[in-house]
Amino acid sequence: MLLSQSSFGGSTIATLDNTEPERLSHNHPLFLNSNDNSGAILISLQLRGPKNYFVWSRAMRIVILGRNKLGFIDDTCKKENYGTNLVDLWERCNVIVLSWLMNYVSPKLLSGMVYSSNASEVWDDLKECFDKVDCSRIFQIHIEIATIRQGTSSISTYFSKLRVLWAEFDSFAPIPNRDAANSREFVQFMERQKLLQFLIGLNESYEQARSQLLIMVLVSSVNRAYSMLMERES
Q1: Do 166 and 194 contact (CB within 8 A), yes or no?
Q2: pTM confidence score
Q3: CB-based burial of residue 192 (10 Å sphere; 0-12 exposed, 13-18 middle, 19+ buried)?
Q4: Distance CA 113, CA 229 (A)
Q5: What pLDDT digit, counting tens, does each position of 122-171 carry?
């Protein structure tokens, strides 16, 4: 039998001419739009090694999830899950995701990836090589958070520096169990810790405002405290 003509880039795929072509919705993991190609611009950094793996992997997961292709790196979108009429499309999607990974690693890492044919295997290999908890870096972040001060910076600049440190520290922490009975209390406790760290580093000229914030029960987040202080500064 002859195969019918169709396009991978649209919502239909090739099928036998005596069957109805299968239509893929835009939510289907094998659906490809015009922006899903090997040359797509995803992020602004390259993986160099353990030092920037956490930031790189989180950024890549976000953009790949946004393109509905996360299953190709976490191995939930397997070729054997689809019928023979979708195998070629799966292969194309896999190669595109693989090319995204190859485009955002340093040249010295690329040579070990060009012979790979499965995006999830490459992702796992990179994780195994570079997903190392660097205790010395965690220690350094603790020091920076504990000693950072506003100084000559504006509140906005000082707060932005703290947020970067908090984000990097959080990337080292394991994902909490959302079903745990005390998870909400733990999140609130960590938020209060950030609030205290933020207030500690403020200049002495904000002593009165800091004292007022500390006794305000309703101020439960560092973002709320930052907003209030920005109003005072302006």
Answers
A1: yes
A2: 0.61
A3: middle
A4: 50
A5: 999 999 998 876 778 788 899 999 999 999 999 999 999 999 899 888 87
